[in-house]
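Summary for the steering committee. The consortium agreed at its last meeting that each partner would contribute one worked example illustrating the joint modelling workflow. Our contribution is presented below. We chose a case with several input lines so that the handling of multiple components could be demonstrated. No manual editing was applied between input and output; the record is shown as generated.
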Amino acid sequence: MVNITINNIPVKVAKNATILTAAQKIGIKIPTLCHFELDCFSFEHRIGSCRICVVEVEGRRNLAPACCTPVAEGMVVKTNTLRAINARRTSLDLILSDHPKDCLTCEKNGDCELQRLAGEMALHHVLYEGKMSEYKLDLSCDAIVRDLDKCIMCRRCESACNDIQTVGVLSGVGRGFEAVVGTAELMPLKDSKCVYCGQCVLACPVGALTEENHRYHVWRALNSKDKHVVVQTAPAVRVAIGEAFGMAPGTIATGQMVAGLKLLGFDKVFDTDFAADLTIMEETTELIERLKKNENLPILTSCCPGWVKFMEHQFPDLLYMPSTAKSPQQMFGAIAKSYYAEKLGLKPEDIIVVSVMPCLSKKYEASRKEFAPNGIRDVDMVISTRELANMFKEAGIQLGKLESREYDNPLGESTGAGVIFGASGGVLEAALRTAAEWLTSEELKEINFTAVRGLEGIKEATVPVAGIDVKVAVCSGLGNARKILEKIRRGEAQYHAIEIMACPGGCLNGGGQPYARENSSILAKRAAALYKADEGMPIRKSHENPHIKKLYAEFLGKPGSHIAHKLLHTTYTPRGDVCDA
Amino acid sequence: MIDSVETLKQRVEALKKEGTAATRILISMGTCGIAAGAVPVLEELKRVLAERQLEDKVEIIEAGCIGQCYAEPSVEICNAGSGSVIYGGVKVHDVGLIVSHIEDLAPDMNTVEKTWYYPETEKNTRNKIQARIVLRNSGRIDPEKLEDYLKNEGYQALAKALTEMTSEDVIKEITESGLRGRGGGGFPTGMKWNFAAQQPAGRKYMICNADEGDPGAFMDRAVLEGDPHAVLEAMAIGGYAIGADTGIIYIRAEYPLAVKRLKIAIKQAEENGLLGDNIFGSGFNFKIQLKYGAGAFVCGEETALIHSIEGKRGEPTFKPPFPAVSGLWGKPTVVNNVETYANIPAIIRSGAKWFRTIGTEKSPGTKVFALAGKVENVGLVEVPMGTKLRDIIFGLGGGIRDGKEFKAVQTGGPSGGCLKYDRLDTGIDYESLAAIGSMMGSGGMIVMDEDDCMVNVAKYFLDFTLDESCGKCTPCRIGNTRLHEMLERICEGKATMDIITKLKNLSYAIKDTALCGLGQTSPNPVLSTLANFEDEYLAHITDKHCPAGVCTKLITFKINDNCVGCTLCARNCPVSCISGERKEKHHIDQDKCIKCGVCYQACKFHAIDKL
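What follows is the complete predicted structure of the assembly.
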């Protein structure tokens, strides 16, 4: 511990503390902008580039950035001298002088940290006006929009892309006033090896990185006269959407969300959880097959499109490993446009499938050409949790005041196994529940596999199933996935099954979720809500879902059948450093 | 193979026994000399000597830069008995005459006065302003010959350090010498070494910063081209002091000759056991590699330099941690500049006490300045710290070119300050320059005369820092851009008086908040010109007039009654905006005039006024 003085108040802090954390101890939140810390992942972006957090330190010639200046015994800090305040205001003034002032129409309006900071620091006009950065808006991909005019060079996205995700697409480009965070040579995102995980969007404090907005397509679909418009909602959406309506983080808003969707005018409101159960049927069948033959192990989950694209770019030599099962979103689309369409007597093109996802990569996944048989996409439109919240608000729907309603049938019936897909470890846990019963033909007594739960990036467990010690691992965050895959590549690790999710913590922290910012305790609350939802379900094992059983009986035959393969499985494409599709 | 102090001694004795030719001709073959035409002069010299069968009696030494840029190509004739004479501006056709007068003075030739002495070997003489420690071998030895270096005390310091001194002794000697970083910061070198030495044993790095980037500064290049072994020797001494076995020279790729000579020197040192394993049988191992930079100014900042070596974007990071604790690849690292290293062997050989006899109390030793701008004698000068600006500019520099008035001198590179005549008697060292709003920097010294507009000069330097900013921190990326825009408005006559306060406030904020040295010093040209030449700013702002007649938006060319109608101006005008009948007064169309000044230069009758 060291003793320092902040604004004449003595403070005792840990040796590795910074002035910023020390000041928090006495109730001073020094304003920051480039600094970004995610406690739950022990991640800190401490670059000290924005110079908003500067404070006076006795004996130093220059002002010190509080976010990255370590404390030292006897240090005397003044956070609110005129010199410090003026310097902070100048830094903010300069940032604003090169930032578009279109706040009212900005995608991040209300969610912008720069906007909030300008409000808190009460900067009423920009003193140092001058030329502004001008870049081409990057609308190249279906998932993420980059408006570099708004980039403030905080480099948080770069850190998310490189340090957390190890995707390596974003970095500082150019020098001086022309410096900006972008792709190599500012190539369109579509041409890069970006996996559209959207962690950069979550990290970006301003409107430089946002999702490609598909709300208007959905509005148009909802107003089409001759289309049957159905919606599916991913597991993680229900535990986060409430945040956008002032509900406490961790509120399970499933019924109210369904009610809201019906109010928006969807013909049917279905659940991706149903397709998650279906995924378990197919994937577990594949797992058991590989286990029995002891080949192509470990099996890797394939639900996450960001992860799949990462694998295609960075580990093309290991593409035999992921399960061939499509993701729940795509399974849902395929079933909706075949089984469901037949039931209704509709042609696939008469049905519009809309997804609500916590994810931006799902927008890209739905556009992959292998998911558009005969040119008709299985999933037509994908909106994020944030976009759905916007649509509700636009329609005046007050989520908190709605009476809960139930999902429609047949594609709305799901189990607890389906809902935990939204948390890191959930897919594997759901698969283990089914695998254990199928292999032993006995009812599983303890269905909670708590060893694979939690927000840690890499979780490992050995699970005895029918006499086999099944070695499993769960990774969330692509940087963690890389660590495990490199070990496997080097032959240093053996597993039977690995669940991988691109976003740290899983889908609950997806790129399309409401902005949790540095308040990462929200993520644990979302996870807890998913497991609570699981416990509240009458059926908690995918293979016991009655509508799934019916689907196989009426249409698919059995898991792994020819028609199941045709509709529910896919292939992967090795890709290089640049994307060709 | 030199594997012990004894073999080094034998080798040097053997070399000295070989003796030297009665006459030695040194020709400056640095980049500057070559650019000025030294190669054909050298060829001619070889041809003439062969023709006159003098090859046995005369030895040609292709030496490095002698510092007299204004006099290149230069040839020095050294006779064992009668001392030496340096001819400047030598042309190919002069060579025959020089050789004819090899023992006396060639008539009608430019000779260059030797304004320097070598404090390690010669006593000071009052009439010599320069004291050469850093440049002691530059221009005197063939940098591509290890033997030449060995004959001039080469590797004696390393031998002494490795066999007679402990690592602590070395650090103590350097600390006591008071040597400070010559790259600009002026940080005590001994202290830096000590920090790194105190880190736990293990991999450590000794880096030489040869990313010289100040416009107009080229002393590092001169040392690397003229005396590369001195840097290698110093790095090995440093490696021994801090416990590093690896040295890296980060050199800009735009210095091909320096790179070539360093490669040769490294090879020679390795082949002779002066680098590599078990140097002088001491058990100390040291290797040196080269790493090329792409010429980014900011990569001279030590953390940015380290990132560049690591293959990352060349931009600085906040200190602490300091490189001495966590540097290259996270290991303790010392980064010293070329000129700093070039002092080390002399200090080890002759001692801290001797070093302190030169220079000032707080800044011992010498400093090399690259004298440029409107002085007669541009080039490199090495003077004891504390030398007056006046002695450098009007003594060594020979005063202002073309009899013009001295206006300002800018020291410290692009982010130094502009000083006016009232500072000419300042003895320059780190403290005194900082006290008057400038800095030592790496030793650029640009002299300006009455024709220079100080607002424009500030804008020019800011232009450079704008280009070279890495763009990482807000004050440097956007703040400097705004300063530049304000200066532009002043130069265009579009500014109002409130701009002065804005300029000052923003400058101070940038200095106070920028992340690295580049940003923290970039407003210096603005602040120092505001402090020393405020009247020029006011003239631009209130009178819309540029006193030096530089800012084109504020000048008007008008034809007066001296005009005889010779039509010369009209014929030279590139935009044909001058009209008038032959033998009648001409007229300039102000709407079309681009203020290029060609008419003003062309007129032979003083008939064009620049207003």
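The longest strand of chain A covers residues 468-476. Chain A touches chain B at residues 47-52, 54, 62-63, 65, 68-70, 83, 86-87, 90-91, 94-95, 97-98, 127-128, 130-131, 152-153, 171-172, 174-180 (CB under 8 Å).
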